[in-house]
Specification:
7 helices; 2 domains; about 200 residues; Rossmann fold
Length: about 200
């Protein structure tokens, strides 16, 4: 079985850019989670792992290594695991395969380790630039948070897509920690959603 694994960082991202891939696959998996979430903890990745463990997968295709993760250790761990199972991994943007025709690619471990390290550095740089940008904004008199004079009703807050997802997982008995990892949100937000649902006497 030849499968494709895609990932977008947020629920709001559509993943339309993946439509440029017109290759045929037996199955396509799409996770909408942060790259910081370990591969094995993602909902769709878990489904892919099940197929791999059942011996049904011969090849896994990704657009780029960052779709597997943003931390070097996690990415290398996943690649090593697939390699041990003799599953060919294809990275489309690099035109690189781990074991084409069943033979190990000698440059695979070198290139993948370097690229995974670069993605980790890129993530840290994004965090640093965001933090510095906020500091400069505040120093120049800007205010973070909701603009003065605006308000949001409790009902409108609960109707947001991510908050609806939180409610769904709460109903299914997921813990705050599990929901926080799956949806990339803070336990404080999850508690606020739960309290509002109970307060408004909504079906919980």
């Amino acid at each position: 079985m030849r499968v494709k694994y895609n990932r977008t960082s947020t629920l709001q991202q559509t993943g339309n850019r993946f439509k440029a891939d017109h290759d045929s696959y037996d199955q396509v998996f799409m996770d909408k989670v942060s790259g910081k979430i370990p591969f094995r903890e993602r909902p769709q990745a878990k489904e892919l792992i099940k197929l791999v463990e059942q011996g049904q997968v011969d090849e896994v295709v990704v657009e780029e290594l960052s779709r597997l993760g943003r931390h070097t250790g996690d990415v290398i761990s996943v690649l090593d695991w697939l390699g041990d199972l003799k599953i060919n991994v294809v990275v489309r943007n690099l035109g690189l395969q781990s074991c084409p025709d069943g033979k190990k690619n000698p440059v695979w471990p070198i290139i993948t380790s370097v690229m995974a390290s670069m993605y980790t550095m890129e993530l840290e740089n994004i965090k640093e630039r965001t933090m510095v940008g906020r500091m400069v904004f505040v120093q120049q008199g800007g205010k973070l948070g909701r603009p003065t004079g605006t308000s949001e009703t409790q009902k409108k807050f609960l109707q947001k897509q991510k908050n609806q997802e939180i409610v769904k997982y709460l109903k299914r008995g997921f813990t705050y920690n599990e929901i926080s990892k799956l949806l990339v949100c803070s336990p404080k937000t999850i508690k606020k959603v739960k309290d509002l649902v109970l307060q408004l006497n909504d079906d919980y």
